[in-house]
Amino acid sequence: MLKWYKEIGKNNDVVISSRVRLARNLKSFPFSAKLNEEQALELVENLKAATPVLESKSEKKFYSCNIDGLTDSEKTAMVERHIISPLLLAREQSTGLILSEDERISIMLNEEDHLRIQSITGGMNIMGAFAEANAADDVASELFDYAYHEKYGYLTSCPTNVGTGLRASYMMFLPALNVTGKIVKLAEELSQYGIALRGTYGEASKSVGNLYQISNQKTLGSTEREIIESLNRIVEQVMKQERRYREYILTHNYDEFEDKVHRSFGVLKYAKQLSSSDAMTLLSQVKLGIDLELLHLEDDCNVHELMMEIQPGNLQCLLDKNMGSAQRDRFRADYIREKLPDMV
């Protein structure tokens, strides 16, 4: 089944993916920060009971598990694929996960809130992600009594999520804004509109391979549609800026940039060892070269899919064994060489 990161969606030269996350809590349990271990375990087991109901009301296959039942590689791979958050792994209490087979819908159990319902799609398709998250939320709301206030809306552990409990975000590929030094200024400008620009894995993370998350910061006082429409207007402007600076780079440094793209491709095709950091940097250059038609390959290549697959956890899951960093670096180089098509 096609995973979200294998999709080639709208505006995929700049917008990698769209994500909607809904924060919900149950009336019958204390919020996660106040749960004891016995309550946490009971909460997770109760919430996992939603799995067959979700499956019966959709065309998807769903799975559920307790996070402590996963291997370290599986946990890391799920963070890399944005299925679960680093915060969920850091929780010392019982936590769980409900996941659709295509990985588009994931529900974290007992993270910062009792339920974190997430839908993620490839490309610019935030309304599609919202529709799927909302459908899962409808199922959960029929099964569980949410903590809800008539005036304030959904009640959450963090005050910034009170209201709709909705965080909408785009994963954006912004190499030109980064290389021209415009990212810091962009982050400052976005914050004035209640929009956050963060690293690849969200708050407090750094950008890897020129991938950045852009999301709303406020959920109170606006409807879901208003939040999404506001974010879309901002993202449209960021796309225009990124494309404009790409044209600027081509106009002023064409030969140098063309050479850099082809060098990156050459290293990826012939290197015997590659760290994940080096591979992400080189793949970022290749993706930009393909998007700008500086690099022509014999077959189509979803570079972002390759970026996901060569992360440490995902590599170890592919081989179904733990590896040291040196082994991973060698296997990563072999894997990229095999998957990356030749140049025309």
At CATH's second level, what is the architecture of the largest domain?
2-Layer Sandwich
Distance between the termini: 30 Å
Secondary-structure-based class equals: alpha+beta
Biggest β-sheet: strands ordered side by side in the sheet: 2-3-4-5-1-8-10-9
The whole-angstrom Rg is 21 Å
The proportion of residues in beta strands is 15-25%
CATH topology heading of the largest domain: Creatine Kinase, Chain A, domain 2
Put simply, the count of helices is 12
Number of domains: 2
Mean pLDDT: 93
- The CATH homologous superfamily name of the largest domain equals Glutamine synthetase/guanido kinase, catalytic domain
Uncertain regions spanning at least 5 consecutive residues: none
The percentage helix is 40-55%
Order of H and E elements? EHHEHHEEEHEEEHHEEHHHHH
Overall outline: globular
- In CATH's first tier, which class of the largest domain applies? Alpha Beta
Give a quick account of the main beta sheet: strands, pairing sense, barrel closure.
8 strands, antiparallel
Please provide the count of β strands. 10
Verbal overview:
- The structure is a single chain.
- By secondary structure, the chain is of the alpha+beta class.
- It folds into 2 domains: 4-240, Glutamine synthetase/guanido kinase, catalytic domain (Creatine Kinase, Chain A, domain 2, 2-Layer Sandwich); 252-339, no CATH class.
- Helix content is 46%, strand content 16%.
- The chain is built from 12 helices and 10 strands.
- The chain has an 8-stranded antiparallel beta sheet.
